[in-house]
Amino acid sequence: MTAEHIAQMIHQTGFVPLFTHADADTCRKVLKTSYEAGVRLFEFTNRNTNSFDIFIQVRKYCREELPDMILGIGTIKNKQQAEQYLNAGADFLISPLILEEIRTVADAHQKLWIPGCATPSEIGLAENWGIDMVKIFPAKQLGGPAYIKAVKAVFPAMQFVATGGVEPSTEDLGKWFEGGVAAVGIGSQLFPADWLAEKRYDKVGDQLKKIIREIEKARGR
Q: Residue 168 sits in a domain of what CATH number?
């Protein structure tokens, strides 16, 4: 898919699940469970010392077992990481920061890059670079839905993906979408460590299905 198609898909679904783990089998099971729950776009985050090795394995798994799963990489903080993961088959990049060297790499590969922004100055920089989707991080700590509403008034064309502190509940999701987000990123609350340790992937799947329904409700669909 093109960068434009992936951005459209994020906006249409309103949801980016994100996950990382040092065990490849756990990652494969989480991806399979997510796929069976209806997820077709997934962010694997680059946060462990063996994240690249795990990514290689799950990228191969998605190609062989999970047709149409779009697999991106998150927590990209420099051009070396961007190059490494794009060359390994990442479909898109997400960062916790905004950095021109990452933008240059993403443009060269013609891949979607969603930079992380925390201030109007950073959002404005992204806008002036021609970027129309940014990650607001850490969203809850920055002020939550009220912060989104305030910056949306100044940047009405920008699409915001709120990540960090988003609760998977009807009430909280409703507030984020009322505030003006295009999508939310949710990680640890979707994949609790105790559920994974107990191999309760049925509970993970049920939670994902519930979130998808709640987001549709929050957006009035």
A: 3.20.20.70
Helix (H, G, I), strand (E, B) or coil at 16: strand
Question: For tokens 């990680």, what's the residue?
Answer: 187
CB neighbours of residue 149 within 10 Å: 15
**pLDDT at residue 87, as a whole number:** 98
pLDDT in tens, 32-75: 999 999 999 999 999 999 999 999 999 999 999 999 999 999 99
Spatial CA neighbour of 92 closest among 41, 138, 161: 41
Domain limits at 98?
3-214
Indicate yes or no: pTM above 0.90: yes
Give a yes or no: residue 123 inside a domain.
yes
How far is Cα 50 from Cα 56, in angstroms, rounded to an integer?
Answer: 10
Q: Is residue 219 part of a domain?
A: no
Rounded to whole angstroms, the Cα distance separating 55 from 59 reads 6
Q: How far apart are CA 56 and CA 45, in angstroms?
A: 13
- pLDDT for the residue 156: 97
220 in a domain, yes or no?
Answer: no
Average pLDDT, the chain: 96
